[in-house]
Amino acid sequence: MPRSSQEEVAFLMSQEVWGKILFLNAMKGEWEEVKEAYRSQSSEVQKMKITRAGDTALHIAASYGLTKIVLQLLEIIGDCASKSNILKIENDKGNTPLHLAATIGDVEMCHAMTTIDPDLVSSRNHENETPLFLAALHGKEKAFFCLHSHCEQNCHSFRTKNGDTILHAAISGEYLSLAFQIILWHPHLVNYMNESGFSPLHILANTPSAFNSSSRLRPLDRLIYKCLIVEELKGEEDIKKICPQEKQPESNINMSSESDQTSLDPKTKKKSDQTLTNSWRNICCSPSPTKRGNKNEAARDAENPPQATNQRPEQERKSHPNYIYASFVNFLCLIITKALVEIDRFLPSGILSIDKINGEKRRHKWATQVMKELVKNTSSYMSEQTPGETRAVDDESFEEVPNKPVTESGEETKMGVSEMVDEILEHYPVAIQDVDSENKNVALLAVENRQPHVYKLLLKREKQIESLLRQVDKTGNNALHLAAKYGSYRPWLTPGAALQMQWELKWFTFVQTSMPSHLSVRSNIEGQTPKEIFTTSHKPLQKEGSNWLVKTSESCSVVAALIATVAFATSATVPGGLDNETGEPVFKDKPAFDAFTISSLVSLCLSVTALVFFLSIITSRYEAHDFSINLPRKLLLGLTSLFASIASVLVSFCTGHLFLLDRQLRYVAYPLYAATCLPVTIFALAQLPLYYDLIRVMFGKVPQRSYKEYRHY
């Protein structure tokens, strides 16, 4: 019967009162009262939105990760149809309780909700995101497996508005174990492109820090890195073994045991006979994507990879030619690693950083595995008779798009992953002839974007590299023209504009020596030779480097002059004076006197030498070629003389002061000497990084690129 006006007013007042009661109880965590309200009131109360964001009590409990409360509320609701209707309620962002459960990765909630209504996995919020996509986006691997087990045939294809697939999302967040599993289940997703024209392979190429070629470790860290043993990813092709389809009692739902313990080696998959996409720029020099997900969560998920059982027969393993050697190496590495772990316990935190290095090696190894699977399954570099890559048109339809390079987005940040280039050329050698929209092949792109690892990799292909280097782009630039150009980015791993200029000269020289000599004098369409382009484009850096050298030399000259003044006064002073009868020094037979005399003279000579070098830098002409050898060598010799003079003057001071103390106080004076020398020592230590960089740049033939400033954000 229809309600009367009075009944309607009373009903609305009741709704408002119950809404406030539910809200206050939920905010205070008094869930027993919420459950009591669910039991005693009508379904209208159970469906009630109690926050400004349009959340029900079930939304709030799910977002807080209150698994037990969610399961109890669902049990109170009653029949399956009522549960399904309440679970379909969306908040103002279009999220159902399952969206929130998937976001936080609660497996029990996800299994309980999808068991009630499997269609919930296909529900989309206002960003066109499904719960399955959100689980991949946030790296919730176990929740993803659970939701995937309830998916229909095409559930894995759901995308957000920008056209990302679940594989795009997993790789963007660097959830590598999850991405590896997605590729095994749905290899065709490898060829899907988002609205920006990026495939999952391009997304991975945009994260060079995930590969060993871009890592920069200290020598000790590199030794630890090589000794650590990291397990490879082992995927599971049967989803039922990870998350069973059958309904379990809600109070006993536990996905963790099977997710962690059940994993088999993937079956051998048929190798794709199709070649790679026409997109060398994104592989050799690709833009940084926006990283999704939480780094801490990614690291935590990476720490617990699925443990696989080795199904390879024992006899087959032992008959492998390298089995004994590999076993010995692994055993040796295991012993070294154990020893390092024990040593690390007695050292201050962070000295060895074994956990950090182990995580980095795991990341590199897993990224390489994912990359190999992507390359093996790609089918986007193919003839015109075969379909191209697939791209989303709207929420429900997809279209085939022609193969074209993903280099027309005007990206500026460029990167290189030599492991990926090597893998592509290993599978598809013809890809080395691929060019982008500006007619630049892989060699030209590697040179233009300062990718030493990639370029040296290409130089090993002697039969192909010469033809690649002879090629020119649309404006007539060959590889040396591109090496001569200088952009606004600073790719070299060295501080100071002067050292940047030196690396640029070394890079230009390195490329020039690898090319036929007659190509170095070729002109482009504008009539410019490589040398003319280098001189013109590097003028701002040349000026900046000149200013940097002048300021550095002036600062060091002041210190050198002060030391020279002190050393001169010290060298003209005789501790203890002269003997009145013989005219010889009183302490001439003491070892400290000899040390004082020699150190004061050495300090004077070295400080004057340093001063001369710094003054010669200040008065230099600062031509471009001077930055290659002349100026850096003067700076290196000047700093060497300065550091040596500092050490000498400290020895001179300490040995000379010993004569002023009584024998009983000499040992007490040693700590005082150390404290007195501390300020000067700090200055020397502050300049040591510059000194180290100068040595590295002076003796390095090929520049070392830095990836720190291009890490994804």
Automatic annotation (TrEMBL):
> Known Pfam families for this protein?
Ank_2, PGG
Keywords per UniProt: ANK repeat, Membrane, Transmembrane, Transmembrane helix
ANK repeats span: 53-85, 93-125
Domain PGG residue range list: 547-658
Has the keyword Iron been applied to this entry?
no
Q: Where is the composition biased (Basic and acidic residues)?
A: 294-303
Biased composition, class Polar residues, residue ranges: 250-265, 274-291
User: How is this protein annotated for GO cellular component?
Assistant: membrane
Checking Gene3D superfamilies in the record gives: Ankyrin repeat-containing domain
InterPro entries, alphabetized: Ankyrin_rpt, Ankyrin_rpt-contain_sf, PGG_dom
Q: So where does this one cross the membrane?
A: 595-615, 635-660, 672-692
Region described as Disordered: spans on this chain: 242-318, 380-412
Q: What is this protein called?
A: Uncharacterized protein LOC110749617
Biological source species: Prunus avium
